[in-house]
Amino acid sequence: MAPSLLLFSLFFLLHHPLSSPSPLPRSTLFKSNLLSLPNPSSNTSITTYFEVTKPIELPHTKPCSYLLLHHDFAYTYTKPPVLANYTPPSNCPSQNFAKIVLEWKATSKGRQFDRIFGVWLGGVELLRSCTAEPRSTGIIWTVEKDITRYYSLLMTNQTLAVYLGNVVNSIYTGIYHVDIKVHFYPAQVGSSYNEAKLGDSADLILPISRNLPLNDGLWFEIENSTDVESKKFEIPQNAYRAVLEVYVSFHENDEFWYTNLPNDYISANNLTGTAGNGPFREVLVSLDGTLVGAVWPFTVIYTGGVNPLLWRPITGIGSFDLPSYDIEITPFLGSTVDGKIHEFAFSVTNALNVWYIDANLHVWLDKTGAHTEGQLLSQTLLPLVVSLVSNFTGLNGNFLTGCSRSVSSVGWVKSSLGNITTNSTQAFNFSNFMVMGNDGNLQIVNQIIDFNDSVHALMPTSSSQSIESFKRFPLYLYSDSVDQGNGSYNFVTNLTLGFNEERTKAAGSGFVVSSLKNLQNAQGIMLVKGNLVVSGVGSTQQAYQYDGSKFCYFRTVGSSNYTILYDKVGNICSKNFRPRVGFGLAKSLPFPARRAYLTSVFLDNKKLH
Ligand SMILES: *[C@@H]1O[C@H](CO)[C@@H](O)[C@H](O)[C@H]1NC(C)=O
Ligand SMILES: *[C@@H]1O[C@H](CO)[C@@H](O)[C@H](O)[C@H]1NC(C)=O
Ligand SMILES: *[C@@H]1O[C@H](CO)[C@@H](O)[C@H](O)[C@H]1NC(C)=O
Ligand SMILES: *[C@@H]1O[C@H](CO)[C@@H](O)[C@H](O)[C@H]1NC(C)=O
Ligand SMILES: *[C@@H]1O[C@H](CO)[C@@H](O)[C@H](O)[C@H]1NC(C)=O
Ligand SMILES: *[C@@H]1O[C@H](CO)[C@@H](O)[C@H](O)[C@H]1NC(C)=O
Ligand SMILES: *[C@@H]1O[C@H](CO)[C@@H](O)[C@H](O)[C@H]1NC(C)=O
Ligand SMILES: *[C@@H]1O[C@H](CO)[C@@H](O)[C@H](O)[C@H]1NC(C)=O
Ligand SMILES: *[C@@H]1O[C@H](CO)[C@@H](O)[C@H](O)[C@H]1NC(C)=O
Ligand SMILES: *[C@@H]1O[C@H](CO)[C@@H](O)[C@H](O)[C@H]1NC(C)=O
Ligand SMILES: *[C@@H]1O[C@H](CO)[C@@H](O)[C@H](O)[C@H]1NC(C)=O
Ligand SMILES: *[C@@H]1O[C@H](CO)[C@@H](O)[C@H](O)[C@H]1NC(C)=O
Q1: What global pTM score does this model have?
Q2: Which of 109, 134, 209, 293 is the least crowded, having the fewest Cβ atoms under 10 Å away?
């Protein structure tokens, strides 16, 4: 009997849904994502889904709130994005905002896949997210995102675009009813500075995405390992700092890229319709043909992934607000402030169809308007190193994939702030141990991604500022499928998914440190027929601990079979957390430098005094 290869193939999501969900050969059916059957006998109240995350720190002021868009996303697949005119707040008593929050609220009812969607303002992506899968009794969920870093963009007239490719027919009945709002929180009266303006936010944000009109999202689609998608842009000649914020999501054959099998295993076993190219992927970003950095993405699991019952009501880490990744471009700025056209390009190592990628270029401008100049001094690349140990007999075996890379770029930019030398370094490490057993019906994946970034800016006064981020993404996925002999399968899955990040901002002798540990464990069983979950149960436990210089936050929450079993929230810092804060800071740097570069370091300290 042919093995029901592979468990995971079942979860390849049709974010590009089929135009008609007609019966397909089995191997193709395995490429569809799962949805649960509506259960008419279940509790008739509406289920609220949520992602565990820390609250947005808000000033004690009354926000000016605006509804940007109400839309019912029915059959929207391959239709143009929904557009709306955006104007900055005009009737708000204050024009000085400390915080700006985007709110996405949606309801749905019936049966529907999880759908990827994006929200763009002037082509700049504000939110990448995935819808929750509805129930027959109805669901509701809200996503709130701090969008203060897009301050300058939000102060100008723009076009809002939302793409959510949904298919509605007699089988897939869920329509998404969506409200998008923005809340502007005025800076506190008496506060001597405007956090947003003096903080991290850039003077100009350029879209590195596809231009409207489109019958799709504004993201680029990377379809294979040789596909390169690019965008031309031009930046003002008085730019002194630039950061590229990259948005990434993966779908269809690469939705579960970390479970994809090595090609030698696939060919030796004559498998067809099984996603391959092994379990390693990376997004590469180049500027005018030079590699400027990479993204080794967090393994977001969408709401229909692995077992949809795991994500009701606690959704997977990052699934409602996919992380974006910053790449410091400042070392390369010298070659781009020449008033000419330049080009960013994206590719994905080992990619299978399809990756959605775009970016926002955050640019800081010299207020004196003077032309800046600069030069890349050096670049040290430790190219991708891949090691693969493949050990299998027939459909059983084990595979160890290890990869590493580093990119370090040093360049100077001279502006009215002085001649600042910036060293931007990324260091990556990846290991994936995969076991295949039970003639291909059992798969165990144990993976760790290390993603370290540092930016060091050497100031003219020979003092320095830095931002460092150490990210670690662990993943453990056990899955076993048993063929029931009538076209249905029993699946057992155990999952551990973690997102950990430690951040340090330093200037002179001052430090601001934060730490996030976010871990989910989940266990599920289900009976699957086609792409429908006929029955089953999912349980999820999550522990979230954030320690910051301004506040700490924890939440532990567990659910099973749609019911919350426990939920503890608090603001106690973890025992071993020691925020280190410097006090010699104001003295160590001249005023213009303090305000101009990596400014949040100083704001954080100011608040703590
Ligand atoms: C339905 O669910 C809600 C909240 O989940 C609960 O408070 C209520 O008791 C449930 N009702 C029934 C009839 O099970
Ligand atoms: C922005 O849009 C508003 C409303 O359409 C219009 O009145 C205003 O003149 C526009 N502002 C600019 C700077 O174009
Ligand atoms: C990769 O994708 C690009 C873009 O769709 C296509 O032009 C190219 O032919 C593909 N290459 C291979 C080897 O399939
Ligand atoms: C794969 O196909 C080849 C050629 O048809 C055949 O010789 C070989 O035995 C097949 N291998 C397996 C594992 O089915
Ligand atoms: C290959 O796998 C077999 C079965 O799991 C194991 O006994 C053997 O030690 C492995 N060999 C290597 C070199 O890892
Ligand atoms: C800026 O500093 C760098 C590094 O010290 C130096 O190589 C470069 O010549 C300086 N540029 C100017 C315009 O002084
Ligand atoms: C840049 O920073 C990295 C990481 O901190 C360091 O290893 C490297 O030596 C620095 N390069 C230069 C030229 O200072
Ligand atoms: C990332 O940083 C951590 C903490 O300093 C270190 O233990 C780890 O080896 C680094 N990883 C890479 C790939 O550089
Ligand atoms: C990379 O990962 C491998 C396997 O986990 C480990 O042996 C190695 O020390 C790591 N390297 C760094 C620089 O973290
Ligand atoms: C298939 O068979 C299994 C076990 O024999 C049974 O539990 C299940 O109800 C059947 N499923 C369908 C959809 O017929
Ligand atoms: C899966 O999780 C359950 C519940 O935590 C546990 O009892 C079981 O041993 C786990 N199985 C595997 C293979 O990890
Ligand atoms: C899950 O809950 C439903 C109703 O709320 C109940 O009928 C079912 O038996 C429960 N399943 C398990 C495995 O506890």
Answers
A1: 0.91
A2: 109
Report the alpha-carbon distance of residue 208 to residue 227 in Å, rounded: 17
Residue ID of nearest Cα to ligand 1 atom 1: 43
Q: Are 482 and 462 in contact (CB under 8 A)?
A: no
Q: Which two tokens stand for residue 289?
A: 């043909």
The HSE-up count of residue 259 (CA atoms within 13 Å, CB side) is 32
Q: What is the pLDDT of residue 594?
A: 30
Residues 149, 201: contact at Cβ < 8 Å? yes
Give per-residue pLDDT as tens, 179-209: 999 999 999 876 544 444 445 799 999 999 9
Ligand 4 pocket residue status of 76, Cβ below 6 Å: no
Centre of ligand 10 from the C-alpha of residue 439, in Å: 22
Eight-state DSSP code of residue 297: -
Side-chain half-sphere exposure of 129, counting CA atoms within 13 A = 25
Mutate to test the pocket of ligand 2, among 66, 155, 157, 159 (most ligand atoms within 8 A of CB): 157
Closest-CA residue, ligand 5 atom 10, reads 391
Total domains in the chain come to: 1
Which amino acid makes up residue 370? A
134 beta partners: none
Which among 452, 415, 440 is positioned nearest to 327, based on CA atoms? 452
Whether the Cβ atoms of residue 282 and residue 428 lie closer than 8 Å to each other: yes
| Ligand 10 mutation pick, 525, 527, 528, 532, max ligand atoms within 8 A of CB | 527
Measuring CA to CA, which residue among 587, 588, 585, 577 is closest to residue 602?
Answer: 585
CA 397 to ligand 11 centroid distance, Å:
21
DSSP labels, 10-37:
GG---SS--SS-----HHHHTTSPPEEP
Instruction: Name every residue whose Cβ is closer than 8 Å to that of residue 443 and which is 6 or more positions away in sequence.
Output: 6, 7, 8, 259, 434, 435, 436, 437, 477, 478, 479
Ranking 64-73, 364-373, 529-538 by mean pLDDT, the lowest is: 529-538
pLDDT tens-digit series, residues 369-394: 889 999 999 999 999 999 999 999 99
Could you tell me the two tokens for 248? 């990434």
The response to whether residue 334 sits with its C-beta less than 6 Å from ligand 6 reads no
Q: Which domain holds residue 52?
A: 3-608
CB–CB of 181/155 below 8 Å?
Answer: no
Place of tokens 């007999």: 393
Indicate the SS3 state at residue 595: helix
Cβ 412 under 6 angstroms from ligand 6: yes
* Ligand 6 centroid distance, CA of 421 (Å): 8
Looking at ligand 12, which atom is closest to the CA of residue 43?
5
The answer for residues whose C-beta is within 8 angstroms of residue 148's C-beta and 6 or more apart is: 97, 98, 99, 100, 195, 196, 199, 201
Q: Which residues contact 84 (CB under 8 A, 6 or more apart)?
A: 68, 69, 159, 160
- The CA 145 to ligand 10 mean position distance, Å, reads 43
